[in-house]
């Protein structure tokens, strides 16, 4: 069973951003952020890179953290 990748829990709280703020940065509705954070939808690789860039998070570090 694939594990949910919660980028928000790894980067967003430390930046003090809400889902609505992240969604605005991405040009997406707040429900987009809520759905990927809640594991209701998956991100494709382009979306993943867009989210990590918006959160100023290192995509490699996030992916490597899945190995542990």
Secondary structure blueprint with pairings:
Layout: H1 7-15, H2 19-26, H3 30-37, H4 45-54, H5 59-65
Helix pairs in contact: 2-3
Structural notes for this entry:
By secondary structure, this protein is mainly α. The chain has one domain (7-65): 434 Repressor (Amino-terminal Domain) (Orthogonal Bundle). 62% of the residues lie in helices and 0% in strands. The protein is built from five helices and no strands. The chain has helices spanning 7-15, 19-26, 30-37, 45-54, 59-65. The longest helix is centred in the last third of the chain and has 10 residues, at 45-54.
Main attributes?
68 residues; mainly alpha; 434 Repressor (Amino-terminal Domain); 5 helices
Structural class: mainly alpha
The largest β sheet comes out as: none
CATH class placement? Mainly Alpha
CATH architecture field? Orthogonal Bundle
| N- and C-termini, Cα separation | 16 Å
Determine the number of helices (DSSP H or I, runs of at least 4 residues): 5
What is the number of beta strands? Answer: 0
Give the amount of beta strand, in percent.
under 5%
Helix fraction? 55-70%
| Structural domain count | 1
Give the overall pLDDT as a whole number.
83
Shape: globular
- Poorly predicted sequence stretches spanning 5 or more consecutive residues: none
Alpha-carbon Rg, integer: 11 Å
One letter per element, helices H and strands E, the order comes to HHHHH
CATH superfamily: lambda repressor-like DNA-binding domains
The CATH topology turns out to be 434 Repressor (Amino-terminal Domain)
